Amino acid sequence: VIRCRAAVAWAPNEPLSVEEVEVAPPKAGEVRIKIVATGICHSDDHVLKGSLPNVEFPVILGHEGAGIVESTGEGVTSVKPGDKVIPLCLPQCGECSFCQNPESNYCQKFHFSEPQNLLPDKTSRFSCKGKQIHHFVWVSTFAEYTVVPEYAVAKIDPAAPLDKVCLFGCGFSTGYGAAINTAKVKPGSTCAVFGLGGVGLSVVMGCKAAGASRIIAVDINKDKFAKAKQLGATDCINPQDFKKPVQEVLTEMTGQGVDYSFEVVGHADTMIAALASCNMSTGVCVMVGVMDSEISIDPTLLLTGRTWKGTMFGGSWKMREDIPKLVSSYLEKKFNPDLLITHTLPFAKVNEGFDLLHAGK
Ligand code: NAD
Ligand code: ZN
Fold first, then answer.
1. CATH code, 137
2. What residues flank ligand 1, with Cβ below 6 Å?
3. Where does the pLDDT of residue 51 fall: very low under 50, low under 70, confident under 90, or very high at 90 and above?
4. Which numbered ligand comes closest to the C-alpha of 43?
5. Entry's CDD domains (predicted)?
């Protein structure tokens, strides 16, 4: 058993509490990882606000991390102690029908099908003050050590800087893949991206890499615009600067609406605005933002031919195989998600990280 620090969420709507926890050794088919760096994703915040389904408290959150294998359980063959790895919140069991379908990355072991609050044998490796603490989508990266099933671990290039490539565990791969895999953005096309957090800026990078000729970045926080431009946005607009709805502004800017629109906020109004912003006949709108409420739309929006799609962790990436390839492309300087990193904090200041997220910084 390893004693180390972890940020425990004892209950929803409370700050995280940095505690000493016990992390039990990996059982058969499991891997214990020393987490070196983790990002904060807005989805962690959704969980704290109680708006992600099936999560059980107390829990150790965090799902965008990178680390080094500390030890392995019986039967583990694909990684060994000392390997650099990214733990995967979307596993790749390799056996379910989606893992076997080249067009899907939605492994049926994922949380929405089967809650990942306990490891597959229905027990937890975490305890604190004599209480069992739940895992979060198995990975729980807000801990100095974590235990995950082998099929939720991607082994990456030993040269990868872990404090940078942790973003490949969620934000970068999600946004970049939404453009490349889910929308399949074509060269010369026009795109609109609603929401310029870590995920939305990664969508901008994906649209640019796919050769889009116009990328319109949309956010109510104009402080996000400089970085969006640096990463490839050609225009930046703040919906609050206009009297008319943003979908009308975008339609006027592009003639018939954009070819591809992306919602990367998680609000009903931006979902509808993003859908209405794409070309009424051939446009594709991709939903990336997570929301817990229902929305109603005018069905005519789809009747005229638009396509409305959702995406999880970047569409068709096969997580165990493709995340290491993405990391290698990063090492070959094919893209630069380092620009997404705004602050680097010591672990004990994890709540300050959430304050910065809330403040739009
Ligand atoms: P973030 O908080 O860093 O960024 C959200 C951005 O949206 C901010 O810049 C904010 O100013 C902007 N925004 C807020 N209201 C807006 C409005 N009305 N119009 C335009 N912009 C507005 O969040 P993030 O970490 O980048 O995550 C974005 C969303 O993606 C979240 O909902 C998160 O849960 C979701 N997400 C989905 C997946 C997936 O697999 N589908 C993966 C990761 C994150
Ligand atoms: Zn995430």
1. 3.90.180.10
2. 41-43, 46, 170-171, 174, 194-200, 218-221, 224, 239, 264-267, 270, 288-290, 311-313, 357, 360
3. confident
4. 1
5. alcohol_DH_class_I_II_IV (cd08299)
- In the predicted model, what is the mean pLDDT of the chain? 96
- In sequence order, the 6+-apart residues with CB closer than 8 A to the CB of 1 are 22, 23, 24, 25
Q: What pLDDT, on a 0 to 100 scale, did the predictor assign at position 27?
A: 98
The whole-model pTM stands at 0.96
Q: Do 213 and 345 belong together in one domain? A: no
Could you list the residue range(s) of the whole structural domain that residue 282 is in? 175-310
Residue 107 and residue 22 share a domain = yes
* pLDDT tens-digit readout, 110-129: 999 999 999 999 999 999 99
* Mean pLDDT, range 11-22, rounded to an integer: 96
Q: Is 43 in the active site?
A: yes
CA of 348 to the centre of ligand 1 (A): 25
Looking at the CA of 52, name the nearest ligand: 1
CA 195 – ligand 1 centroid, Å: 5
Over residues 146-158, the pLDDT tens digits come to: 999 999 999 999 9
CA 182 – CA 179 distance, rounded (Å): 6
156 and 183 share one domain: no
Q: Which of 107, 166, 170, 191 is catalytic?
A: 170
pLDDT per residue over 156-192, tens digit each?
999 999 999 999 999 999 999 999 999 999 999 999 9
Residues 277 and 351 grouped into a single domain: no
Domain match, 204 and 273 both: yes
> Which DSSP string do the residues of 211-275 spell out, in sequence order?
T-SEEEEE-S-GGGHHHHHHHT-SEEE-GGG-SS-HHHHHHHHHSS-BSEEEE-S--HHHHHHHH
Å from CA of 130 to ligand 1 middle: 36
**Is the Cβ–Cβ distance between 135 and 91 less than 8 Å?**
no
Residues 88 and 107 in one domain: yes
Sheet holding 190-194, edge to edge: 235-237, 214-218, 190-194, 260-263, 284-287, 307-310
